[in-house]
């Protein structure tokens, strides 16, 4: 009768999302001998934002060698910074190579997750009305959860021209000779602007905050170099050396005493700002545009960008920089607060994403765990937190690959690998013990959060005091810097690979 009352879940493991994190989780599960898993993906192919985004000029903003899995190093990248299409093909190739397609369900969005304490499993309510149950859940929805469809500007529904979004670009729309506006100066805008400037009739870039943008030479990788990269150990050595440098910077900020940190960061910012203004004098002819492009904040207070063509685009006669705030959309374009109305055939909304470090991203009712713990409400009331960035005591049998304080300063693939290792290691131990419920202990969680919060003091100072005037997703609405893990890459990797099993409770359902 017990089996009738508590039937087995539909799957042992469900992975939500088939972006870089979901692919990593699938490979790690396969290697651990877990065969009964499914990867749910709302789109029609793997890759996450690299599948959804295909706008003009799309490239990675770190070297290609650092933007790949350690278990699937690619010696055949065509350029130092790979194009979006090349990264998209890479993800598909990895999923095929490791046999993930039989485990994938495309066009499947998860509307809500609810813990069933009697059955020790999760009920996933799907957008199509179906329900899927799983013993364990790995949330691999990524860092950029969903694009901001509403730019927060009145009158969008009145505009009669073409709206383009980086996440849903219409490649068939002919830009030739068109009057175009781009709202936003983040990473997408920095790539789109120079890519289309030579095609359009006119281009107006509407800027709220100047962006740090350094030149990015992007040479083709010679055949001899690609051959060398195929030699075992070469790519790992090059990438490892870069990680050592990044790790040293993060550990220095985390461990330095605040009386040293404060003046040191002020001096670094002041020097960097002066240096960047010198770069602008070299690259941008118009002094008025130059002044508008000059940031008054530190280089890592917002996401810095790399693009050789962005600053140079403002030397073109058909490209303009608009720093006056937008008042509203009109039927034919945009009106700024100075009363000037500009007409456009197309407006690009490069206004960003809802990101994992914002409490507002976690909708109440989306994830409900033990004793009614609602993740959205919990984060609003208590702030973003999670043991080793992946698990909460009230959410048993569930791990998040990109959670609070998770980014280690490395490429995305490197750190979702380590968080996937954490989840799969816990699941494997549960299987070894025949446990049906795995939950991080409250005391272990609390001790970790106290340590990580203490280590983040320098970053909080940098983002919430020294650069408090600049809007950035590195600082969330609660004034916390939960985007970055202030321990260094290698410390994080060791922790995910070696966390003590005593930090978790493993229980078995008896009914």
TrEMBL record:
It comes from the Bacteria. Signal peptide: none annotated. Transmembrane segments: none annotated. InterPro entries: FAD-bind_Monooxygenase_sf, FAD/NAD-bd_sf. This is NAD(P)/FAD-dependent oxidoreductase. It comes from Nocardia tengchongensis.
